[in-house]
Amino acid sequence: MAYSLDDRFIRELSADAELAISTDDLRVFYGDKEAVHGVSLPFERYKITSLIGPSGSGKSTFLRSLNRMNDTVAGSRVTGQINYRGLDLNSPDIDVYEMRRRIGMVFQRPNPFAKSIYDNITFAPRRFGEHDKQTLDELVETSLRGAALWDEVKDNLHKSAFALSGGQQQRLCIARAIAMQPDVLLMDEPASALDPISTAAVEETMLKLKEHYTIIIVTHNMQQAARISDYTAFFYSGQCLEFDETRRIFTRPKITATDDYVSGHFG
What we know:
Blueprint: H1 8-16, E1 19-30, E2 33-39, E3 42-44, E4 48-52, H2 59-65, E5 76-84, E6 87-88, H3 96-102, E7 103-106, H4 117-127, H5 133-146, H6 150-153, H7 166-178, E8 184-188, H8 196-209, E9 214-218, H9 222-228, E10 231-236, E11 239-245, H10 246-251, H11 256-262
Parallel strand pairs: 4-9, 4-10, 7-8, 8-9
Antiparallel strand pairs: 1-2, 1-3, 1-5, 5-6, 10-11
Helix pairs in contact: 4-5, 4-7, 5-7, 7-8
């Protein structure tokens, strides 16, 4: 199956919109295997972009590349550009740890630290030198409010994060990420391990967060992509085959493979 991405919409968006981050001919290799094939995508500021596609299509690998998480995978190599505020984040002289303060990550399964709710939020700020208690207290409240969790936990901030439900733990992980005041939030299937009620709470949180953050999310849930995202990119076999406004991807896709996938007839 061979397709070439129609880049007219990408060119128009890149020219007209304020971009938070973009890629140019991004390729990811694991040894000799090319897992992501030359993907060039723009991500508009204060919008949600969903990356969809079958398992093994390269969407999570692409997402992790945006804040250099693939650096930790033995034998991996990333070429091409990751453009952020005039910098190429794929450059070897980039301070990766500083960069991840600006481009945060929320993983598939909730992964709170074995610490209190309060210490989960303040762990990274403290490591970066913030020790003023009033500042940390305000940061905890602001971050938990941003993740729509404050009212549920404000009286139990010094209890273990493991006492929270799965959905609450995931929102705590979102709060922990936004405590560093990033520009971009990367989310790798953040609701796939959650029940429907918790999923709805996380989706509502994301819709509120896009007022202040740019969100890029990998999801297998087509209804979720349709509900929350402004743009959608369809990945298949390491390539981005189609990228457009979400409403068009789900109503008038340009290629048959996208139509088959979003309508559940793929394979």
